[in-house]
Each structure stands twice: as structure tokens, then as C-alpha cells.
Amino acid sequence: MHGCKSRREEGHGRARRQQAQVLACAAPPLDLPMPMHPPEHLETERLILRRAHLDDAPALFQAYANDPQATRYLSWRTHESVNQTAEFLEGVDASWDSGQEHVWVLVPADEAEPIGAVGATTDMHGVEIGYVLGRDFWGRGLMVEAVRAVLSWFAEQPSVYRVWAYCAVNHERSAQVLLRAGMTYEGTLRRWVLLPNIADEPCDARVFSWIRTGTC
Fold this sequence. Notes:
The protein has helices at about 5-25, 55-65, 80-100, 140-155, 170-180; strands at about 40-45, 45-50, 100-110, 115-120, 125-135, 160-170, 185-195, 205-210. By secondary structure, it is α+β, with helices and mostly antiparallel strands.
């Protein structure tokens, strides 16, 4: 009769369903980020990297968030008010506690106010790094120090197999930061990232990474 199955077919069906249930319980979804808990405080020769806080908003707004040149190649629009910077920091605080995204502000060792930031976002087995620095501090190698410090910490974690970052194809200064920090060039992703301060359509991006060596 139509719609009927033999006992053998029914048994096979139950076995397949039970196997699928076991696999579903044993393996997490591929898109599930891994929570990480890096230190809230890192130091380099000239910088202190500390967890970003809401009261950093005025200093970050003045240092880079309201500067069209400093934010030109970023994935968010230049801030028009300090309230926008504060809203960003509120979200950052919650993301840190969840273990999925971490933002450190950069404070010169001999100063009190932050001048830039480095962020790290985790995925299943890797970490993406982003960064920004106030224009008054360009050309001193400070961002190389900061990115290298964050990269070094994640590279020491056994569960991290890849630390990577991207920059606009014509942003040579940023590319040099990543190379000097210890990453290598992987390739160019075409029409991959939105850079709203440049264009309203996806732009090409150069990708750099540090990769853990292994069997694959």
C-alpha cells in the first residue's frame, strides 16, 4: 500500500534519526563563535592597552571618531556627536562580557587619555582584528605595537588557528601595519566590504593573517 514501510525500513529510519540526534548534540553549529577571555590590560614598550569604558567616549571622539581622515577606511561612518561614540562603547562593554568581541583603548604610557583602539572578534576557530589611531599619532609605529600585542596573546591560545585582518586595497599604511605586526598577505576579496566613508557599495579588501601550522 502507498505510504507504508516495512519493519526493516522503519528500523533504518529510526537508526538514522537517532544518529542525527547524537551528532547534533555532539557537534556545535559551525557558526557558533567561541567565547574568549583575554586580559583587560596589555602593555607594550610605549602603550597601555586597557578595556574600553563608557567614560572614554569624549577622548575617543576627539582623538579619531569625529575625524574624516582617521575614519576614512573604517566600516562605520564618521561620528557627528560624542553620543554616537558613547553608544558604540555601550555595545562594546556588553560584547566583552559575552566573550565574543573585545576592544582595548590605546593609552600612551606617559599620558592619561586614549588615542586609538584595537578590537578583536572571535568566530569558530579564529579571530578578526580591527584598529584605528588618532591622526596626531600616525607614523610612529604605535599601531604596530598594539596589533602585535593582541595578535601575540591570541596566537598563544590553543583553540585559535587563525588571526586575520583586512584593509582597503589602496590603504598601504594599514597593510604595512599588519605585515610588521607579524601577518602575511593572503589575497584580495573583491567587492567584499562596505566602507561607508568611501562609497555606498562594496569595496575590494586585502586580507592578511597569522596561521597556526598544523596537519591541514
